[in-house]
Amino acid sequence: MKILVASHTYIVDLNCEKLRSLASLEPDIEVTVVVPRRWRPGGVQNRIIETQPRQEGSFRVVPVANFSQNNQGLLTFGAEIIPLLRQFRPQIIQVEQGAKSLGYAQLITLNKLLGLKAKNLFFTWWNLPYDVKFPVSLLEAYNLRHTHGLICGNQDGVEVLQQHGYRGSVKVMPQLGVDESRFRWQLQPELQNQLGIQADEFVVGFIGRFVEEKGLLTLGKALARLQIKPWKWLLLGRGPLQSVLKEKAVEWGIQDRIIWVESVPHEEVPRYLNLMQTLVLPSETNYQFKTLTAVGWKEQFGHVLIEAMASKVPVIGSNSGEIPHVIGDAGLVFPEGDVEALRNCLKQLMEQPELAQKLAERGYERAMSKYTNQALARQQLDFYRESLVNLPLVY
What we know:
Elements: E1 2-6, H1 17-24, E2 30-36, E3 38-39, E4 49-50, E5 54-56, E6 59-64, E7 66-67, E8 76-77, H2 81-88, E9 92-95, H3 102-113, E10 119-124, H4 136-145, E11 149-152, H5 155-163, E12 169-172, H6 189-194, E13 202-209, H7 216-224, E14 231-238, H8 242-252, E15 258-261, H9 269-273, E16 278-281, E17 286-290, E18 295-297, H10 303-310, E19 315-318, H11 323-327, E20 332-334, H12 339-351, H13 353-371, H14 373-389
Parallel strand pairs: 1-2, 1-9, 2-6, 9-10, 10-11, 11-12, 13-14, 13-16, 14-15, 16-19, 19-20
Antiparallel strand pairs: 3-4, 5-6, 7-8, 17-18
């Protein structure tokens, strides 16, 4: 099976692990990843990534000249994409830029004009209701009409696209998996001593952006009145809410219990996860944010949850967006913004170490069976074959 995937996401080599796994599942699978040759991450004016070609057996990354260097929806490819398609002749074309992307429309059209007869798929994270107006409505309708399969990072996104008329095959799974060789349980006595964490202290962790919609004020209020046992709050990240959190911590009288750690390289995150007795993702749906087409925000997945589960750290999450679907029965879920409910979840883990251990084991099993790069690669191949190509499964 020849699979072509197009996305700016795979400029970062670490993000390619699922697709490498996909290429290694069976001898007849070839995966070609098309990435823009030049990209400005986050639209930063003075930082441009120049992508280099890479090949490892039946997996390769091919940089192609691109139009738009910092906008997913406007990203399209230069004429050199045509000989690449002619030479590779993919059976699957998957564009990971969303339902309204010009790049997806471009590859749908080239698929047809070149007579490739490949199946068209796209991936999206978008999980909020939105309106589309002319001419974007025509673009989206064209893309959805020619789509054979949708892979979405969350269930809400599927429902949104079904409201826009999509009726084809669907698979819900994240774009990127967790690396179980890096995210695993391992004691960190030196780091524990360095941060001043005592052996009897229950460490509540958060990793992410310090912004209001991540629910940090709710978590702070829940912790403020917990007197069950000694605890510390380990905050790894940064963001505009940090100054507010510091003021509130003084008001709540918990400033001495907080450990602030500025954002660290991703490869260092597993060390900090291993200090935690629980990781909490208390995200809250926020309908104040506005874009051109939609209002609001809610959690699209919560990748840190599967990293914690792979590390055998019990997780607590709100019911915002995809969080409860990611956790399943392998952690505790509370209504977003509910301070008392979150406090009760924390109390359960503090008072019942056997429950914490059971959830840690369940989380690990869930991460290994559903969310490693190898597990996601198998799910993706199953989706291609069962729903799109109707070829027999051979493992």
